[in-house]
Design brief:
The protein has three helices and no strands. With 163 residues, the chain is mainly alpha-helical. It has a domain of 92 residues. The protein is rod-shaped, with a radius of gyration of 25 Å.
Length: 163
């Protein structure tokens, strides 16, 4: 178990959010290239697109629908896992903290009070770890939703740059 004073308690969420920001930036840059390429292509062909242009233009709508569907599904699956795990952990810690506070309040000696106080502090430390885990879980949830969109933007960027 990590101690509350350890920087590792807070480092993981920071890394998760930084990774998400990097992936989002990468996806946005690829999207800008794809939009530029497709807009130029649409302007060039005007009202007379050839078969290849028609395929590319219809692909635009379908791939957005597919990516949005995959994104929603991935996030729903991730959310169900996160909710069950974190709810169970948070509820257990809430019960443990209540028990620890009641035990501390009913201490009969200084030794017993110190021991029970230490137990309460340990439970509160676990609660801080859970809060940190929640932040990481939300970042991973966003990652799972971004993954299909990022993948398509990157693939399109490479395909249109080479084609």
């Amino acid at each position: 178990m990590r101690s509350i004073g350890s920087p590792a308690v807070f480092a993981n969420p920071l890394q998760d959010w930084t990774d998400l920001a990097m992936k989002t930036t990468e996806m946005m840059m690829a999207s800008a290239q794809v939009i530029g390429h497709r807009t130029t292509r649409m302007a060039a062909v005007g009202a007379n697109p050839n078969e290849s242009d028609c395929r590319e233009f219809s692909l635009m709508g379908q791939e957005k629908f597919d990516a949005a569907t995959e994104s929603a599904q991935a996030m729903a699956e991730q959310m169900m896992t996160i909710n069950l795990h974190l709810w169970t952990r948070a509820f257990g810690l809430m019960l443990a903290a209540t028990t620890d506070m009641m035990a501390l309040a009913t201490s009969r000696s200084m030794s017993q009070s110190v021991t029970r106080h230490a137990r309460l502090v340990h439970t509160m430390t676990q609660s801080a770890d859970t809060a940190s885990e929640m932040s990481s879980s939300v970042a991973r949830l966003a990652h799972s939703g971004l993954r299909p969109i990022h993948s398509r933007a990157m693939d399109n960027g490479r395909r249109l740059a080479n084609g």
